[in-house]
Amino acid sequence: MTRPGRYAGAVAAVCVLLALGYGFASWRQAAIAARPQLPVAFEHLDHNKMPCADCHHNFVDRTGGGACYNCHKLTPEIAADMEAMFHDFCRGCHVRTRMEGADAGPLRQCSLCHR
Amino acid sequence: MLVWQLPLAPFAGLAWDWANNLGYLGVAIIMLLFIYAGRPRAFPPFSGRFFANLHRDLGYLALLLVAAHVGLLLAAEPLLLEHLKPSAPLYMLAGLVATVLLLVLVVSSITALRRRIWPDYRRFRSLHAWLAIACAVLAGWHVAGSHFYLNTNFKLAVAGTVAIAVLAYYLSARRGARRRVRFVSRLRNTAAYSHLLSYGATLLLVILALALVALRSPD
Q1: For residues B131 and B139, is the Cβ–Cβ distance under 8 A?
Q2: Using the beta-carbon criterion (under 8 Å), do B86 and A31 form an inter-chain contact?
Q3: What is the pTM of this model?
């Protein structure tokens, strides 16, 4: 293959990859929006040492009302980050607390929270 | 493996911790495949066949360990199936694609199949190399994204540096192999040592990983 032919082939391959990436991202976004939220077991009494506003931030920053679901699942702009955000927030706190030697909730086992 | 787990992540259950150790070991072997890439090397001074066998054995072992990692986790946590769907986090999809690529790499390397698909060996080798690099990058993304072992920035930086060094070494060795062949006096009849070395060492590490996890269990 000639050198211009190789460049053209490389440019075409990059374009195809970008198109595939865009298509996949759109498809994934639709799949996340359509996926029902998994049930989460949460006991307020187990978390009464935590500052309320750590979770209920909307009462402080006035970004909305109601349950977490109302914004984090139903707002398309932030729905895609919901899982990572809540895992980091809840599990991250449990892991840190356990590493400091104190008792904490579930660390990894999905079924201990999602039941 | 021992050093890697410091500072220790809290114990998360026997199946969880052992399965993650197996997955990590699988990724370590994938990186080792770039160092022992099938071509004879100066060390150990064994026959050329030893290196071809070692690469094949390590490939089988990597697939076996990754299959055990996935199978054990799915058996312990069926809810993890959610992480194999398109809506899963990207680092999980990276792990899924890396697993599929590893399967393709191993199956397409079976001699009878390879000769049927690629009569020209050089074409196979080139595609195999690029798919392997993609597999390693995606596997690294999966390990880093899951934050289980790479749970500090320091470990992330060290792992990234080691991975880049291994891939750079592999690419430079590929170029070098075209230019020069260095003479090394080699021991004969050493091809079978590859099985002993790869399977033996891996079995030992798998048992060691299980023992470490069991020792950390509060029960």
Answers
A1: no
A2: yes
A3: 0.86
